[in-house]
Specification:
There is one protein chain. By secondary structure, the chain is α+β, with helices and mostly antiparallel strands. The chain is 24% helix and 47% strand. It has eight helices and 29 strands. The strands form five sheets. Strands 2, 14, 15, 16, 17, 18, 19, 20, 27, 28 and 29 form an eleven-stranded mixed β-sheet that branches. Strands 1, 21, 22, 23, 24, 25 and 26 form a seven-stranded mixed β-sheet that branches. Strands 3, 4, 5, 6, 9, 10 and 11 form a seven-stranded antiparallel β-sheet that branches. A hairpin with a 3-residue loop joins strand 23 and strand 24 (348-359). The chain is rod-shaped.
Length: 463
């Protein structure tokens, strides 16, 4: 009778043990957080094309249609003139904007060969001789040409060098007094005033406020850019340089080098607002080679792995386990620690460890050396050795491989959509990505950081 009781008790224990869940002890995690990657500076060359038509139209509208001047002397030639003009004709050389002004003028002048002063009053010793041209007769035609070279200084102030290149009177005033040709004299005097106008043009250009616009653009660059499904892109701008302008037809071309340390992260972080410093000296850079750190939080990786393995069946000697969760709980000594929740023949939770590694040729992320965590192995050796099966490890290892090349292809498409087309009224971008490759991988206490190299070209067109 006692034997039967003992057998029944043993069966009861077996049944109780067979139905109970398996709960492995939580493993030890990294006590000291790993040092993150030091930011590595990237440089992006942006080719800019600016349609100058709106600027030149503004210049046309703000330039007076007529102007007057003159000089009054007691002795010698005195004159008054007035000019009117037709529409300004613009043209460009490689590094200069030229504008030709044509029109007509009228000129009134008088001549005194000798002036005397009596009782503090000066007067001409003989009757003045008066003459005119373009007055009460067809106006005399003229053509003048200016050339302007523009430059953006290191303090983001726009400077220019404007020169009067030519001034021609096509219908000279053939007036001579005592064999003295006053026309050439007047022309030289007018040229001096036209040269003063060139200095005025340079002064007006220097008053154009570009710094505030650059500060505003810098502030926008410092804000995170939401990338669908991938988190937030932090550009982290550091400095900028700009080449000299060149021209073709009515389009200005220049290159901008942006120095920055980008991060793509699944977590939105506080923004450090850097200030726009003095512009760097410019050097030629082709396209861009961006060194970007992609930070993947363990929660994001867990969601991705669980999606890959959810309801995966693992057959074990006529028994079946169903994987319900594969999540990353942390790291220790350069190894990730995974929690595996399963149901089916038995229900429970176990822990595995593995080293994340990058296959640079195939651009995949997998986990080598996947094995049972030491506390889990100890538990299974005592109670459920049947779980210590290579099928579990191999199945999870195979399913946990992440094809990053496919993800990067999706990311490139997404980035291209963000960085192509009309981004603001009259501002268009053309982006071409060549390649994106993984170069390094780092485990920290809460995330995996993957360092990548992204190459391509970016062009901005401003109408």
């Amino acid at each position: 009778m006692n034997q039967y009781k003992g057998l029944l008790f043993a069966c009861f224990l077996l049944l109780l043990f067979g139905c109970s869940s398996i709960e492995a002890a939580f493993p030890e995690l990294e006590s000291e957080p790993a040092e993150p990657f030091s930011p590595e500076l990237s440089v992006m060359n942006v080719q800019l094309e600016v349609d100058m038509s709106p600027f030149l139209k503004m210049l046309e509208n703000e330039t007076p249609r007529s102007f007057k001047g003159g000089k009054s002397l007691c002795e010698g030639v005195s004159y008054d003139y007035d000019f009117n003009r037709s529409e300004i004709e613009f043209a460009t050389l490689r590094n200069e904007v030229n504008y030709t002004i044509r029109g007509g003028f009228g000129l009134e002048l008088n001549y005194c060969p000798l002036c005397v002063t009596l009782f503090g009053v000066s007067s001409c010793s003989v009757p003045r001789i008066y003459g005119s041209c373009g007055i009460d007769e067809p106006r005399r035609r003229y053509a003048m040409k200016y050339g302007t070279k523009l430059k953006l200084n290191n303090d983001y102030q726009l400077s220019s060098s404007t020169k009067l290149k030519s001034f021609k009177i096509q219908d000279p005033c053939e007036i001579t007094f005592m064999k003295f040709d006053v026309t050439e004299k007047v022309k030289k005097e007018i040229q001096n005033e036209l040269k003063s106008m060139a200095k005025k043009i340079d002064r007006q250009i220097s008053e154009i406020d570009l710094k505030s616009k650059m500060d505003s653009a810098w502030s926008i660059l410092s804000q995170p850019l939401s990338i669908d499904q991938y988190g937030f892109l932090y550009i982290n701008p550091q400095s900028v340089s700009v080449s000299d302008l060149t021209y073709r037809h009515m389009t200005a071309f220049f290159n901008l080098n942006l120095f920055f340390a980008p991060i793509l992260t699944t977590n939105k972080e506080a923004v450090f607002q850097s200030k726009l410093g003095q512009m760097e000296d410019h050097s030629r850079v082709d396209g861009f080679n961006i060194i970007a750190d992609i930070q993947m939080g363990y929660d994001s990786i867990s969601s991705l792995l669980t999606k890959h393995l959810y309801d995966t069946e693992i057959p074990l000697k006529n028994k079946t386990l169903l994987v319900k969760e594969l999540s990353v709980v942390g790291s220790n000594d350069g190894r990730l620690i995974f929690r595996v929740a399963f149901e089916g023949f038995r229900k429970g939770t176990i822990y595995l460890t593995g080293v994340p590694q990058i296959d640079s040729a195939n651009q995949t992320l997998d986990f080598s050396g996947l094995d049972f965590e030491i506390k889990t192995r100890s538990l299974l050796l005592k109670s459920s050795q049947w779980l210590l099966n290579n099928k579990i490890i191999n199945e999870i290892k195979q399913k946990a491989k992440i094809d990053l090349s496919a993800k990067f292809t999706e990311a490139k498409v997404n980035l291209k959509e963000k960085l192509s087309g009309e981004i603001q009224d009259g501002i268009y971008t053309k982006t071409k990505f060549k390649d994106i490759r993984i170069s390094k991988l780092l485990l920290t206490s809460k995330q995996i950081t993957i360092r990548t190299n992204l190459t391509g070209n970016l062009k901005i067109i401003i109408d």
